[in-house]
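PROTOCOL LOG
Step 1. Enter all chains and additional molecules of the complex.
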Amino acid sequence: MFGKIIAVLKKDAINALRYRNGIAFTVVAEGAQFTTFYYLARAVGPQFRPEGMPYFLFLLIGTGFYTFLLAGIHSFFRTIQESQQTGTLEALLTTTTSAPVLVGLNAMSAFAAGFVHLLIYVGVGLYFFAPIQHVAAPGCILIFVLSVFITFAIGLYAAGLQISICKGAAVLWLLGSGAWLLSGTLFPVSALPRAVRFISFCIPFTHSLYGMRLALIGGNAPELTREIVILAAFTLAMVPTSLWFFSWTVKQARQNGTLSFY
Amino acid sequence: MTSIAFESVSKVFRRSKFMRFASQTETHALKEISMSVAAGQVLGLLGPNGSGKSTMLKLISTVLLPDRGRVLVDDYDTRTQGQAVRRTVGFAIATERSFFPRLTVRENLEFFAALEDIPRREIPHRATDVLLRVNLIDEAHKQTMKLSSGMQQRLGIARALIKSPSILLLDEPSRSLDAAACEEMWTWIRDLSEDGTTVLLASHNFEEVSAVCDRAALLCAGELLDCMNIRSVPGEELRNIYFEMTKGQRKTHLAIEVPA
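Step 2. Run joint prediction.
Step 3. Record the structure below.
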């Protein structure tokens, strides 16, 4: 397994280095986003403190963590879509590595890149613009790990949908837009109408973002524990079903001869 | 010893016209195929486009699963023991676009080798060996997007060979190759067979099948017409046998490639 992990990381690193322009554009885009948030928070003023923290910090954690999780989900779908488009999917699925492991390894590589990006994004933001003092580190790590598991599960669902109906992109766009609005990325969930808040509660990312913010400012311990328990429940329900769903879609595609369709 | 066995295998491709509940179009790709291939044998699958050659190879490699019947590879059932089957089968798929375009020839090969559970230390040597075999060693550091279609085809064969499979599936391997490369390939296919590797070669080129195969399975419209020994049967004669057999079954548009 170690050899496979190295091989996938190496392949993705080489690919990224040979698309140098992409890296430059990402750096410029991140800088622009940073600046936007900084001036947005200044315009809103220091009196607005959603969930007990400065608005800039709220935005920084919300967008940084949300982007990381969504990019993780996209990486699963993109693995399948790219291998369909480059014609490598059939070749990959005739190797001795099982389909869920293949997709998982490729997504893990993207996760690693996303994690580095998250660290730089949030780290730079916190260091220069919004220093924090009372981080609940264990809570922070637990929220992060559980959120990654949930992302893994949603990613496998998306990859399965791409294989079975070739419409993973549309489903992800819908999910991404809905979650962006409802999970408390840009504004607190408490600002939403009461009826909509229930939908928001059912989205795991709502708990990931709220929990991460609580952990980073060393907030209310019982509330943080509640968020961790909810995320653990999502993980237990979603990970096994997503593994089953993805394996089932691959088997169906082998049966129907649609593996390379896109 | 039997290496591959088809037991009353049928494969139907269904396409919904609108959604699941609406009417479907059906293509019967294979109809009740039964045949076996002995270990170390070179079998040619001969037939026009759409006769079921590639479908048979995909069934053996587990890219497809049968609708009815069983496909056994070294006694492993492709439906229930896919992982074990994939360990023994190397498949050079027909399409040339099956590599990561920005990676070099060697990087692509080493990546696929890692997924085949080949020990890390062995991978560079094996990659060199197969690149030498398919005559691509001088292109090892070229990105695959810069290769000609013939070179990509040879790289596909190299990828199939890198795990030293006991069964090698070649789907129209000489389609984009020049005459000299074809001759070379036919020679190493015979060498592999002598070393005990079972080779299945799908082609619509009678000359090629006659040159390298011990037996030929003649297919037309998903049916197995015959499976015959063809050692010392020249390509022209094989072509005549095929045309005689398929008289009445062939439609006028069937595109059989007749070698010059």
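Step 4. Note key features.
Chain A touches chain B through 30 residues (CB under 8 Å).
The longest helix of chain A spans residues 221-256.
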